[in-house]
Amino acid sequence: MLEYKIIIASLAVIFSLIGYIVYIKDIFKGKTKPHAYSWLIWAILGGIAFFAQITHNAGPGSWVVGLAMIVSLFIFLLSLKKGEKEITISDSLSLVGAGFALALWYITNNALGSVILATIIEGFAFYPTVRKSFHKPEEETALMYGLAGANFGLSIFALETYSTITVLYPAALVFMNFFLVGLLVIRKKKHAS
Questions:
Q1: Over the range 134-172, which residues count as b (16 or more CB within 10 Å of their CB) and which as e?
Q2: What is the DSSP-derived secondary structure letter of residue 140?
């Protein structure tokens, strides 16, 4: 059974890397402009979720979250130079909300509470990118978010242990990534017409 989960997790990691490579290429071409706030929060949350999964025997199912943490940090650093420069008050409020939830996580020091808060914070983290994508859909790469949603879904099947702690965060990411893909497709069609 473990071999099967390793194969699924390996495929998810490979497809994740493909999506990230396409996204990073689009950043360097100036086609994609990532929002620094989203990517910073995703890096932090990915770390929290990854270590919570590891301590609760998630096994290979945690690989995609660990990779997302590392790549999110890299994209955050890229976004400081090549990312979205229009930061709104609502973007800043989203960052403050995420920071507040991180402080609550630190105070609770509870794995389940951490994952629940990380999932809530993830919603705050998606807001700046969703807002920007609504107004500037041409500045995001839908393929990367589609692959991310699919890969977080695959990562759930690769988990060794199923619990709220190991499943909640990647399941929420499946929903949020596919929501963003839908928004990008609709908005790009509207902008094209």
A1: eeebebbbbebbbbbbbbbbbbbebbbeeeebbbbbbbb
A2: S
Name the CA dihedral angle for 125, 157, 69, 81, rounded to a multiple of 10 degrees. Answer: -60
Sequence letter at residue 89: I
- Residue 56 has which token pair? 């609760």
Output the six-digit token pair for 139: 């500045």
Domain total in the chain: 1
Q: What domain range includes position 127? A: 2-192
Token representation of residue 24: 């990073």
pLDDT in tens, 98-156: 777 677 777 877 778 878 888 888 888 888 899 999 999 999 999 999 999 999 999 99
How far are the Cα atoms of 7, 47, 141, 148 from residue 13, in angstroms, in the given order?
10, 16, 18, 10
Q: Helical H runs in 83-137? A: 89-108, 111-135
